[in-house]
Amino acid sequence: MTQALTILIALSALALMGSMIILVALLILKAIKSFMKKDTIKLKKPIVISAIIAPCSLFVIIVSMIVGQSTDPTAWCAHEYTVLEQQDANCTNSGYIKKMCSLCNNEITETIEPYHLWIEDSVIEATCTSQKQIKKKCTRCETTEYEKVGDLLNHSWIEDSVIEATCSHPKQLINKCSVCGTTETVEEGSTIPHSFGDWIVSIEPTTEKEGQQTRKCTVCNHSENTALLKKSPISILSRTYDKDFVGGVEWTTEIKNNSNKTIKYITLQWRCYNAVGDPIYDEIDGKNLVGIKITGPLESGETGRYTNASKFYNHSFASSVIVTIKVEFMDGEVINITSDEYTDIIKY
């Protein structure tokens, strides 16, 4: 009933407001019409309708409020409560307050939750491991509880020991709290270099694959590896030369086949120098580069000795440096041997 009356009052209020706005607008429009002396706009009927709706809406509002007050007075009352009965709560049981409105006789009951009557009993001051604790005690039931407040205190550090730096950690200062015994480690500086032992071949190189060598730190056992170059398919075991009385030089070269395949051809080229390291040239053809193409077969593991067919003529000859080594195998594979890729090339 109360909800229906509320809706009716709201609708009536809207109707009253709307009719008043329309009525004012129509009256303004009528004044304009009279000023302009035009009769084309008919305003009499709308004005009469608005004038009827406004008082009717006001009447409905008044009647609804009177009916609401008589049917449900508590819904329209401003309430002025007085206490009829009260039961205080204690530490374990709830209490209540019963009230009645002196205007409409409406009664309500409010619940009082249980509560303790705390007093401060003692204080435990803060340390570096625990916050300050206030012990509280209820004056009624002797119940106690602790309340933690504030922050922890800082540790009181003293230097306990020192661990000198090694290759695995920097210098370490071990500090200890004089209050609680907690320790902390503070690092200073940096690690010292490793003390490595000798390189040890861990994977032997072959003519087809690189090898590997390893060395370990004698202090912390840390290891590091480096690659070893592949073993050269051929090794020049020795190389000698003879110079005749007219300055003709010929070389004899001893070569070993380190591969597991048969060699078809070996091509060697070298440059010639005098005693002070300057390049010299053949006095006949003017060339500095001398070469030999060795025809095999040279089987796997075998060694052969070879002498160049043509001599190099220059009386000032003192030394030579090999600049080209090319090997062609019977299966067609060709390899240019360089010191950047292979080891054990020159072994004399």
CATH architectural type of the largest domain: Sandwich
> In percent terms, what proportion of residues is strand?
35-45%
Helix fraction, binned, reads 10-25%
pLDDT below 50 for ≥5 consecutive residues: which ranges? Answer: none
- The succession of helices and strands, N to C, reads HHEEEEEEEEEEEEEEEEEEEEEE
- The number of domains: 6
Q: What structural category do the secondary elements indicate?
A: alpha+beta
Largest sheet: 4 strands, antiparallel
**Which radius of gyration do the C-alpha atoms yield?**
57 Å
* First-to-last CA distance: 122 Å
Q: Residue-averaged pLDDT, rounded?
A: 85
In DSSP terms, counting alpha (H) and pi (I) runs of 4 or more, how many helices?
2
Oligomer: single chain
In CATH's first tier, which class of the largest domain applies?
Mainly Beta
What is the fold named in CATH at topology level of the largest domain?
Immunoglobulin-like
| General shape | elongated
Q: How many E-type strands? A: 22
What would you say this structure looks like, in words?
This protein has 348 residues and is of the alpha+beta class. It folds into six domains: 2-76; 81-112, no CATH class; 118-149, no CATH class; 157-188, no CATH class; 200-228, no CATH class; 232-343, Immunoglobulin-like (Sandwich), CATH 2.60.40. Helix 1 runs antiparallel to helix 2. It has helices spanning 2-36, 44-71, and strands spanning 81-87, 95-101, 107-112, 118-124, 132-138, 144-149, 157-163, 171-177, 183-188, 200-203, 211-216, 223-228, 230-231, 234-243, 248-257, 263-273, 289-298, 303-307, 312-313, 319-329, 334-336, 342-343. The mean pLDDT is 85. The strands form seven sheets. Strands 14, 15, 18 and 19 form a four-stranded antiparallel β-sheet that branches. It has a four-stranded antiparallel β-sheet with strand order 17-16-20-21, with no helix packed on it. It has a three-stranded antiparallel β-sheet with strand order 1-2-3, with no helix packed on it.
